[in-house]
Amino acid sequence: MLNADTAQQVINHALSLGANFAELFVEKQHSASINTLSDHVEPVKSGIDFGIGLRMIFGNKVLYGYTNKSDANELQRIASALAAKDRRDPVTTSHAFDFTAIANKHPSQRVLSNDFAIASKVDFLMAATVAAKKASDKISQTRGFCMQREQQIEIFNSEGLHVNDTRHYIRIGLSAIAADGSEQESGAWNDGGLLGWELQDVIDPVFTGQEASRQALIKLGAKACPSGHMPVVIGNGFGGVIFHEACGHLLETTSVAKKASVFHDQMGEMIANPVVNAVDEGMSKNNWGSINIDDEGMATQHTQLIKDGRLNSFLVDRMGSEQTGFARTGSGRRQSYQFAPASRMRNTYIEAGNDDLEAMIASIDKGIYAASMGGGSVQPGTGEFNFAVTEGYYVEDGKIQYPIKSATLISTGPEVLKEISMVGKDLQLACGMCGSVSGAVPTSVGQPAIKVDDILVGGNA
Questions:
Q1: C-alpha to C-alpha distance for 205 and 409, rounded to whole angstroms
Q2: What is residue 94's predicted lDDT score, i.e. its pLDDT?
Q3: Which of 263, 257, 279 is nearest to 415 (CA)?
């Protein structure tokens, strides 16, 4: 996408201004989306964006700028403007680019640049809508969506790196609203991955619609949740959002390097119950959070964050490595050319254990089963969180008694890790978007079902 001679010229200029390191991130992104409201298709949206980000590092100081132009003079102008206050005699020389071809571990077929497939996507959403409404006459409305994106990237840096990659993202889902008089509740289901529209071969529109309706209808007839400290079983899949938000961000060198994480000085120490093993990886074939290379050009890898309860690794990007001394983990990510990269998660999850969900529930005297989790809030640095339970049940004497609503789980990441006593076999991942200092990036969250022996539950019963 960018002429190598132009890239070399810009990199050399950046180093001549005294930068220790210089990098160009070139991106072309094609996106398209379809949305439905009940049985109506809303306007289809699509677009193409192109840009180049320039990063210059002076010691521990990062300077970043971007443009939509690929002209060498414009890129050199940006470099000069960025370095205006930090300019000094050059101390680093650039290396000739050595292009490395990256093996694609995540093959895609029906990609956006070849086939928008509007008709079949609309057919999927309409079939999901029919299934949702067929479930009950209380389903008053549905909203469907399909997002597909093709991201081409090319990276040059002063160490001679030259790589490129193409990423294909797709995600589709439906939400349903159930109404009974003045009371309304919603449910939703979606799936996606690092692949093309061949996704339709592995997901079922009827299940999508039925699952969205099932959640909405269960909540519609649910009772108020009791409150207080109690044991909680958290379901698999999106239940992993708690680990992602309350623990995963504390393991990124973005916070570790500033000592803004409670884990910054606990490498090698027991931070969780020994039954807990957690990873962050970008290698799972076609998973939503997977990548071939990170946005600094490093091959992705499998990073064992927690091993048998012991802190084993942080998530480390280039700057994080320089600031902390830990080796890079292929975790430098960014939303687009408009952002400098930072240490970010990929597919982050608690690994499968040996316990059965039924045994976890049977072990509870009085507590709740949080079958599905929703959004919440997290306090950076401490991991204090407040997450909503989107589908929950009251458990007494080891048996599910009735569905509950308006439940929240309140604790901190470090406390929850130590309270996990049982880990299920039913590992599942779910799609999400993670926002941080380098923008919003696709990440997978996940876990098997887990039992937390003691956590504060907020309710209004």
A1: 31
A2: 87
A3: 263
Q: Which tens digit of pLDDT belongs to each residue from 185-219?
A: 999 999 999 999 999 999 999 999 999 999 999 99
The single residue listed with the structure tokens 């989306």 is 33
Q: Which amino acid is residue 61, in one-letter code?
A: K
What are the residue ranges of helices labelled H in 1-107?
4-16, 72-82
Q: What pLDDT does 340 receive? A: 98
pLDDT tens digits, one per residue of 103-130: 999 999 999 999 899 999 999 999 999 9
* Among 412, 411, 418, 233, residue whose Cα is nearest residue 310: 418
Can you read off the two tokens belonging to residue 35? 């949305």
Q: Which residues contact 412 (CB under 8 A, 6 or more apart)?
A: 246, 382, 383, 384, 385
The tokens 């080796």 sit on which residue? 327
What is the DSSP annotation of 98-157?
Answer: EE-PPP-SS--SS-TTT---HHHHHHHHHHHHHHHHHH-TTEEEEEEEEEEEEEEEEEEE
Q: How far apart are CA 52 and CA 86, in angstroms?
A: 22
Per residue in 436-460, pLDDT tens? 999 999 999 999 999 999 999 999 8
Residue by residue, DSSP assigns 340-386 as --EE--SEEEEPP-SB-HHHHHHT-SEEEEEEEEEEEEEETTTTEEE
Largest Cα–Cα separation, the chain:
74
d(CA 94, CA 369): 57
Choose among 301, 54, 74, 232: nearest CA to 155: 54
In angstroms, the CA 168 to CA 296 distance is 18
Query: 446 has which bridge partners?
Result: 349, 429
Round the average pLDDT of the chain to a whole number and report it: 96
